[in-house]
Amino acid sequence: MDKEILPYGYTIFRHDRDSRGGGVMIAVADSIQSNLIQLDYDIEMITVSLFNAHVSLSCLYIAPNSSEQYRHDTLKCLNRVVSDTSLSLVIGDFNSPDINWATLSASSPFSLSLCDFIFSHNLNQLVLRPTHVRGNILDLVLTNQNNRIDTIQVDDSVCSAHSDHSLILFSIGTNSKRVMKPNKRVIFDYTKADLDNLHSYLLGLHPPPACDVNSVWYFLKDSILMARSLFIPSVHRTPRTDPPWFTKEIRHSLKCLRSLHRRYHHHPTSHLSSRISSLESSTLTHISSAN
Predict the structure, then answer these.
(1) Phi, psi of 3 (to 5 degrees)
(2) Which residues form the signal peptide (predicted)?
């Protein structure tokens, strides 16, 4: 049945609705390594890991008449699949037309919870044009690395002809700079050296006859380095790229502060000002205790 939808050359991941019609689907070209991530709840959502788990892609649908428990389960699944390190993408029809994306504010309980989820994970919502014939933004693209997503296009041509929703087009950039891992450093533990064998090895060295001073120097240096590698244990350690006090919690707090300041710039309120002051105070406390 999958081949009736797409030709050969694609891996199809589907979650069909029990009733007639409906559901969600992700189609991945066979040339891209993909694996289905199992979710713990029976909701209309699929999550697939791509490119050796460097990208997670989730597709979901939330019906307008969904129960409070269904929406709660959806947010729990999203909390599980959105990563802090790799690229995470969540796309689908959230049916939350009351969200003001400029201020990340809303009126309904679920939309408020969704805004809190987006804020806490430092996500960006990239669709800024209406995606429904009634002029609402219902279909969203959420990501934690918006610099990896090329320009979003909302195609209205499919509306009325085949659907009351617009088509959303985007691509994932592959030309981002690769972060080079620092070289591991070798540390020798001289307190655990095999001194007896080291002493015997050095006493048995005999420089070649009739050598100039440079040749003798290189002979001694190479012999000592060889003795160190043979009789002194070593460990490999990766140097830290961040200072020791810059913890994961502090990094997350700073990201939240940037998001709050951005929201306050577009829509200044006393509530946001209070949250900024509180978060700044707690962040400074964390930094002071970490130093």
Answers:
(1) -70, -10
(2) none
